[in-house]
Design a protein that fits this description.
alpha/beta; Spore Coat Polysaccharide Biosynthesis Protein SpsA, Chain A; seven-stranded mixed sheet; three-stranded mixed sheet; globular
Length: 329
């Protein structure tokens, strides 16, 4: 079986970095094509896309949403995947870069192990601008300089160990190569932020992924003054939306009891109010009897974190429903 890869690149307001990104992929012999999904950019990105197609008509293809609409990175990736002609799919954001070793381990593993559906690797960092570097070096909320899994995890256990479910690290879609058949079962979400995190959760739940280069980066995250990763509040808020989407997805996908329980556990750990705890327990009442979370549940039941809750909200449900001026003095 030949190892040909279709590289999927969603493009939005990336005119300054797009050419370098695409050319980093075209230099690799495994790349059969780069598929650009232009997402209604407000800058000169469309013109750069068209120029790249003219320069590489056999290897660069361009697609857009109807009427040039902006639909987000997730739906743009889906648009490009539908047009892919290679047996393997990889991803590259329009401000990121591939390194020469990008597909070395992926090729060896996927051609020799038909039971493996995909391979993930480590992601490094490249600073496009001084402003990006300054933010990166001063921020306490940035990703690690080497985005990777902290240990070699068996494919059957990856779902339980990858963030936000597990605590063994995570990987970027930029370092992921999967068989095209994967997309007969899952697609990217329409979420505007962290749709790639949701996709990885779904992917690891349904398919078997192996570790490639865990310690050496195969791609670089391009950091500049306008990365979405700098929207820390938005990323945190997106976690709630991710779990809401995956709980809705559970109604359609026959995940194992252990997988479902792991999802509820991870959601419980992220709750910082009694109202949030109740929301989780309604979905999975057996968590109430898990001794690992007894302290967490009791603390949220007895002491308020949200200032709108009374001091001991669990024992005063009627008090909790009163407006502030009705509270007893």
């Amino acid at each position: 079986m030949s190892f040909w890869v279709s590289v999927v690149t969603p493009v939005y307001n990336a005119a300054e970095y797009l050419r370098g990104s695409v050319e980093s992929a075209l230099q690799l012999p495994e790349v059969h094509e780069v598929i650009l999904a232009e997402d209604g950019s407000l800058d000169n990105s469309l013109a750069v896309c068209e120029a790249l197609v003219q320069e590489h008509p056999d290897r660069v293809r361009l697609f857009r949403h109807p009427n040039g609409e902006n639909r987000g990175a997730g739906l743009s990736r889906n648009l490009a995947i539908q047009q892919a002609r290679s047996p393997f799919i990889a991803f590259l954001d329009s401000d990121d870069l591939y390194l020469p070793n990008r597909f070395e381990q992926d090729k060896a593993i996927l051609l020799s192990q038909p039971a493996i559906d995909g391979v993930y690797n480590a992601l490094g960092v490249h600073f496009h601008t001084p402003a990006g570097q300054q933010w990166w070096e001063s921020s306490n909320d940035r990703p690690p300089s080497l985005t990777r899994m902290n240990s070699d995890v068996h494919p059957d256990e990856l779902f339980f160990n990858v963030s936000p479910l597990g605590r063994q690290g995570h990987f970027s879609v930029d370092t992921l190569t999967v068989r095209r058949q994967v997309f007969e079962r899952i697609q990217f979400s329409a979420l505007r932020l962290s749709q790639d995190t949701l996709f990885i959760m779904q992917l690891t739940a349904l398919f078997r992924l192996a570790s490639g280069n865990r310690l050496t980066p195969v791609a670089l995250r391009g950091v500049h003054g306008h990365n979405r990763i700098q929207d820390v509040a938005g990323r945190r808020a997106a976690i709630e939306l991710i779990f809401m989407e995956i709980f809705a997805w559970l109604k359609k996908e026959p995940l194992t009891r252990r997988q479902r329980y792991a999802l509820y556990e991870a959601y419980l750990r992220r709750q910082h109010s009694w109202a949030g705890i109740q929301k989780v327990l309604r979905r999975c009442p057996t968590l109430l009897f898990n001794r690992k979370y007894t302290k967490h549940i009791l603390l949220r039941a007895l002491f308020r974190v949200d200032p709108t809750e009374p001091i001991v909200p669990a024992f005063f449900p009627k008090w909790r429903t009163r407006t502030p001026h009705e509270q007893p003095k």
